[in-house]
Every structure is written in C-alpha cells, then in structure tokens.
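Weekly sync, protein design subgroup
Attendees: M.S., D.O., the rotation student, P.L. (late)

Item 1: inverse folding check
M.S. brought a backbone from last month's batch and wanted to see whether the design step gives back something sensible before we order anything. D.O. pointed out we never logged the input encoding, so this time it goes straight into the notes. Structure tokens as presented (668 positions):
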C-alpha cells in the first residue's frame, strides 16, 4: 500500500470528523464516524490508533454518541496495555469519559487492575481518576470504601491525603460501614501493607472502630506497633492516638496497657515536640476518670462537597474544543479554566448578528419611558415586551425571598479616592431585565448613562453559549474594563477575552461558555469594573443562568406515562406544592407561554380541566444526566387570580428552584 496516500486519506478523514462536530451534524453521521474510528483503534499502526482514540475522545463529548462508543469498550481497554505511553494515556482519558452508572464497576475494576502495571508517569493521574469515578458513580457507600481502600493499597504513593480524608468522613458518618471498613483495613495490614497513606487510614479507622472487631485488639496493636518505628512523624501521631484509644477501651488487658504506656514514656522524651506532647498528654489522660469520655468516638463530620474533583485540571490540548449540540465539556475540569487558556469559545462570533450603529446621546438626556432608546446597542435583541419606565437604582425588597440570590443593586466605588461615578439606571430596573432574560435568551442585562450590557445566549442540554455585548454610550473612552465571574460549584464557566478599553460610542463582544454541573439555587454573578475619565464604577450583576435554562422539552407525552411517573415521585421535598394569588387575572395564553419559555412542554389533554396547565421537561446536568421535571398548574376558573402549583422531580433542589422560579414569574 502507498503509505503517503494512506496518510493523506486519514488526515482528510480526521479533519472531516472535526468539521462535522463543529457543524453539529446529525447523530446518524456521527455514529458512522464512531464506527469507523472503532476500526482504527484496533489496527496495528500506532499513529492511526492514537488518532482514532483521540477523535473518539472528542466525539465522546456528544452524549448521543456515548452508547455507540461503549460498543468499543473492550478494544479501548486493551489499548491500556499498548507499548506506546501516549496511546495508553488516550485510552485512559477515553475510559474516564465514557464511564457512567451502568459500566462504572467494570471500568473501575479494570483501572484498578491496570494500576499495578501502569507507568509511574501516569499513576498519579490514574489514581485520582479512579477515586473520582468511584465517588461519582458509587452504587453503594460500601463499594466506594472498598474501592478506595484497594486504591490506597495498590498506589499509596500516588494517592493524595484528600482521598483518605474522604473515606474517613464517610465511614465516620455511616455506622453501618464502620465494622466493615475496620475489617477491610485490618486485612490489608495482615497482608503486609505498610504504605504511609494506608497506615494513616488504618490507624484512624482501627483506633476509632477497632473495638467493633471482637477479639482483634491484640492483633491491631501489634500490627500498628510493628510499623511505628518506620513511619513518618504525622503517621506516628495517628498511631499514638490509636494506641490511646485502645488503652482506654481495653484497660483489662494489662499486657497491652503496659506496652502502650511504655511507648508513651519513650516518645515522651524524643526531640519531636508534637509527638512528645502528644505522648505525655495521652499518658497522663489515661490515668484520669475523664479518659473514657475524652476518647469516645469522634462526632460525625458536617456534610460537605468532596474536594476530589477539584484536583483535576483541564487538559490544555482540549481547552478549545467546540461545545456543540448537547455536548459535555471535559468532566475532568471541575475547576474553572484560567484566563490564560484558549479564548476560542465556541466560535460564537459566527452566530452574532451585526450590531446597529450607535447614535450619540448625552448623559443628561436619558431615554424616556415608553420610548425606544436611540442608543440601544441591542436593537432587535431585546424581549418582545416594552421596557418599563426608568426606575431609580433602589434595592429590591424581595431579595431575601429570591431563590436565585436577589438582584444586587448598583455598587459604585472610586479607586482614586474621589467621590466616584454616579451611574443611573436607564430604561428599566435590574430585576426586570434579569427576569426577562430568565425566560428569553436575548435582551438587556444592564444599562446606565455610560455602559449598556446586552446578552444573547444559546442553550443545548447541559451546555450554554453566551455572548455579552458591552456598549459605550459615553462620549469618552471607558478604560480599565475588567469582567469576572466568581466560581460556584453548580456551574463551570469559561470567560473569553475581555478588552481593557471600549472606545467612545463603540461596542465589544465577550463570549462565555457555561456548563451546568448540578441543580442549584445559586446563580453566577458578573462583576464589572470600568473607569470614565479616571473615576471607577463597580457593578455586581446577576447572570441569567438558572436551572430552567438547561431544560429540554419532552415530546410525545401520553397520559399513562405522565401519571405513572407522577405517582412514582414521593411527597416533599421531591414533590412540592404551593397555593398563591395574583393581583391580576392570569391569561391562559401568557401562562402557557411562560411554561414553554421555561423549557417545559405544555402537555395538552392530560388534565381534563381547560383552566389547568401540565408541563414536562428534562433537566440536563453533568453530574446526573437527564432528570424529568413535571408541573401541574391548577388555576381557579372563577377568578383566574388564585392557583395551586405542584412541581415534581427526583432532585429536591431542582424541584424547589423550579417551583420558586415559576411562582415568581406568575406573580409578576
């Protein structure tokens, strides 16, 4: 065969696949691409095998392709044993991405088996990915604890302290796991495991829960004692704490008690101040009556989010991958990408319409209520309703009840020590602008006499593409412009390049990519700083990014399916209900339009009453995939001013946020 010809054909093929992803081609075409790439993964030529894995990894970002990719799981697993380390890395990344609740046990077991022979260059990354996958897709806490203990036993050098901290937290908070975990780590010590991380975990668990293993106190003591001399100082401290608990709980065993007291005496005179103090205090405490109370079981840890996923950083060679229809970004990247990474955010410029020429307007001539603003830099992008009359920037009195964090008013500061700017809101209020953008994907987010910020967005499943339009309405340049979006756990956001200045009567665009990680009542904030002639203004704005933006309509909803799902969801907190009244009568067309704008399908014919509205949607996020959300809105047919709203889903936070959002919009 002609090698050059084959290389050229393969190059064209791989570029064609990238183009099809970029153009959001139909699933049928992409499925054919995956099938073809599966053949490349199995051939002998390493370069083609590598490119096949790399492009299949790119296609794994399209959720619809995951089932097709899983068909090649066995061949991908075989690539872990390839002589080429770059191929092994690609196979590892692809297995990590294709792991879900259905195949997690198989993939985690395979990765644990591979861990013992993996190159040292990738063991740390491999260990961390095993820890993340086992927690993310744990079928039970016992399975998770067993996996992590095996992981620590096989790759202790490459397992961070956060991993065993997490095991301690879970075991301490779940009594049913305590004896099982103690027996598991005891077996590891009996098998000869002596790595520092395993020793730390074993010392804590056996010190706390070793008494649950009847007749094992002596063996636990001798196994820990044999490893005390070679342990590091922090591990020795944990072993001494375990000895103190054994001494207090087993005072009748004089042989062990004397041995522990002798150890405390010996370590009470060593140069290490921490170990010396610990030994002396334990020795004194063991003779006091309060010892039993002091050495009782540790209290449960407060529930908090695992820090494991925050350890994974995004891969630089995939930072600029386009986020196409329904595509998940790299789940390794729980932390936000830094500003120094690729600014190629979805090539969103192609989707943005040409802006309207700016017409000068002096600060002393704000737009009048009911008139169109001649300086509206977003002409044609605002929502269809007329903008309300200009309102002073007074703080909203409903902030405390707002589930999305309220609408922070304009905050003005002056870095130069003067009186600072006094921007006045023009053409509306922060709350009205935000509310309109929550049910529309284009409109004004903020506007004063100097700056106008508009939004145009597109959401597909768990991904969103947002373009911010920053327009300078002033006759002077806006300088030292800074935009930032503080990170929150529920969303992963990448902010594009921000120009440092905006010329007079000009407009710039800033792209933003957002991924929904999980349902949340918190919404990201946009912090804006700009200077006008040396005076600084600081804005703290609420981004119109809420869970309903990641709803997808559900087609072909029939009565039987709806009520089967509806009845399968229990009461609060998964199914919430509220009775409310409105000042004005609800218009059925507007109400159904609001439900549709929230991403729900208005299901006709399911509720026999013509004054009721039934909606169904699918919430998309990276942590749990699709979650069905159901709505029943019962409106009083006599006045149309009173209604009962019921929202149900299998996610309590999602149910609550959806109900609060709809109630707020219905009462507007």
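Designed sequence read out in the meeting:
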């Amino acid at each position: 065969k002609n090698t050059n010809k084959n290389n050229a054909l393969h190059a064209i093929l791989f570029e064609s696949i990238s183009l099809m992803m970029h153009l959001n081609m139909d699933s049928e075409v992409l499925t054919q691409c995956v099938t073809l790439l599966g053949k490349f993964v199995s051939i002998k030529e390493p370069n083609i095998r590598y490119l096949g894995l790399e492009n299949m990894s790119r296609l794994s970002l399209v959720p619809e392709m995951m089932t097709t990719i899983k068909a090649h799981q066995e061949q991908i697993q075989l690539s872990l044993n390839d002589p080429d380390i770059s191929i092994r890395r690609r196979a590892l990344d692809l297995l990590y991405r294709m792991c879900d609740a259905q195949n997690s046990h198989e993939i985690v077991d395979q990765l644990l088996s591979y861990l013992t022979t993996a190159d040292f260059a990738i063991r740390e990354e491999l260990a961390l990915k095993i820890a993340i996958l086992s927690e993310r897709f744990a079928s039970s806490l016992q399975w998770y604890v067993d996996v992590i203990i095996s992981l620590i036993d096989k790759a202790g050098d490459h397992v961070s302290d956060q991993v065993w901290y997490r095991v301690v937290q879970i075991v301490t908070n779940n009594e049913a796991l305590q004896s099982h975990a103690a027996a598991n780590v005891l077996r590891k010590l009996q098998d000869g495991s002596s790595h520092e991380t395993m020793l730390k975990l074993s010392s804590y668990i056996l010190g706390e829960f070793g008494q649950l293993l009847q007749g094992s106190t002596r063996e636990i003591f001798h196994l820990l004692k044999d490893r005390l001399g070679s342990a590091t100082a922090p591990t020795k401290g944990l072993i001494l704490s375990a000895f103190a608990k054994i001494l207090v709980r087993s005072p009748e065993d004089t042989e062990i008690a004397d041995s522990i007291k002798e150890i405390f005496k010996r370590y009470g005179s060593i140069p290490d101040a921490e170990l010396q103090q610990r030994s002396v205090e334990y020795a004194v405490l063991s003779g006091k009556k309060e010892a039993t109370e002091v050495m009782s079981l540790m209290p449960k840890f407060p529930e908090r989010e695992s820090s494991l996923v925050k350890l994974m950083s995004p891969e630089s060679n995939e930072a600029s991958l386009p986020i196409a229809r329904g595509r998940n970004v790299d789940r390794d990247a729980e932390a936000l990408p830094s500003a120094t990474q690729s600014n190629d955010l979805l090539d969103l410029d192609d989707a943005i319409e040409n802006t309207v020429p700016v017409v000068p307007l002096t600060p002393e001539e704000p737009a009048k209520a009911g008139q169109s603003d001649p300086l509206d830099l977003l002409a044609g992008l605002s929502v269809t309703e007329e903008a309300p009359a200009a309102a002073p920037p007074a703080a909203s009195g409903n902030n405390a009840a707002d589930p999305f964090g309220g609408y922070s008013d304009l905050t003005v500061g002056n870095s130069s020590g003067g009186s600072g700017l006094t921007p006045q809101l023009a053409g509306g209020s922060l709350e009205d602008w935000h509310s309109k953008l929550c049910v529309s994907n284009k409109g004004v987010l903020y506007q004063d006499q100097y700056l106008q910020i508009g939004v145009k967005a597109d959401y597909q499943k768990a991904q969103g593409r947002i373009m911010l339009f920053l327009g300078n309405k002033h006759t002077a340049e806006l300088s030292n412009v800074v935009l930032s979006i503080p990170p929150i756990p529920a969303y992963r956001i990448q902010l594009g390049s921000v120009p440092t200045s905006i010329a007079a009567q000009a407009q710039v665009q800033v792209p933003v990519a957002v991924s929904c990680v999980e349902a949340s009542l918190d919404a990201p904030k946009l912090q804006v700083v700009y200077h006008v002639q040396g005076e600084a203004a600081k804005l703290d704005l609420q981004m119109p990014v809420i869970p309903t933006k990641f709803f997808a309509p559900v087609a072909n909803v029939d009565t039987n399916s709806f009520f089967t799902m509806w009845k399968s969801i229990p009461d609060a907190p998964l199914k919430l209900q509220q009775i409310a009244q409105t000042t004005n009568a609800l218009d059925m067309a507007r109400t159904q339009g609001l439900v549709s704008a929230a991403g729900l399908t208005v299901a006709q014919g399911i509720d026999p009453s013509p004054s009721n509205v039934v909606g169904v949607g699918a919430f998309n996020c990276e942590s749990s995939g699709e979650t069905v959300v159901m709505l029943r809105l019962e409106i009083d047919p006599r006045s149309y001013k009173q209604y009962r709203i019921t929202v149900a889903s299998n996610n309590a936070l999602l149910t609550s946020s959806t109900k609060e959002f709809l109630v707020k919009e219905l009462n507007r």
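Discussion: The chain is about 40% helix and 15% strand. The two ends are 71 Å apart (CA to CA).
Action: P.L. to compare against the previous round before Friday.
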